[in-house]
Amino acid sequence: MKPSQIRALTDAQIDTTLTELHEEWRSMRFQEAVGQLTDNARFRTIRKDIARIITIQHERRLDAVFRAEVERSSERVSIR
Predict the structure, then answer these.
(1) Taking a C-beta distance cutoff of 8 angstroms, is the pair 56, 14 a contact?
(2) Residue 9 DSSP symbol
(3) Any idea what the CATH number is for the domain that residue 43 is in?
(4) Looking at residue 77, what is its pLDDT?
(5) What angle do CA 20, 24, 29 make, to 5 degrees?
(6) CA distance 52 to 48
(7) What pLDDT, on the 0 to 100 scale, is given for residue 80?
(8) Residue 71 buriedness (CB in 10 A; 0-12 / 13-18 / 19+)
(9) Average pLDDT per consecutive 10 residues, the chain (80 residues; last block may be shorter)
(10) What is the pLDDT of residue 32?
(11) 9-28 per-residue burial string, b: 16 or more CB within 10 A, e: under 16
(12) Domain residue limits at 12
């Protein structure tokens, strides 16, 4: 999944996608333990997608905090 695709999703869709990827990763780890795993390369793809999603969630949180700080500081300036 490309970062631009992830950024186009809503927060709820991102949470759902992250949950699905974690479930798939968990299932693949079980398949590996049992010896039934056929697609080893998918492990890397899933891990990278999870990391991308978490990074974008963090970016959104930081952006929200920054916007709140800017709004708060502009309120202080207009009071004077």
Answers:
(1) yes
(2) S
(3) 1.10.287.310
(4) 60
(5) 150
(6) 6
(7) 53
(8) exposed
(9) 94 97 96 91 95 97 92 69
(10) 92
(11) eeeeebeebbeebeeebeeb
(12) 3-79
Residue type, 74: S
Which pLDDT score, from 0 to 100, does residue 17 have?
97
In 3D space, the residue among 1, 16, 3 whose CA is nearest the CA of residue 55 turns out to be 3
Cα dist. 1→9, 35, 50, 60, 77 in Å? 12, 27, 10, 18, 43
Q: What local confidence, expressed as pLDDT, does residue 73 receive?
A: 82
Token pair 């079980």 in the structure block, residue = 30
Q: Alpha helices, DSSP H only, in 1-80?
A: 3-7, 11-34, 41-79
Domain count across the chain: 1
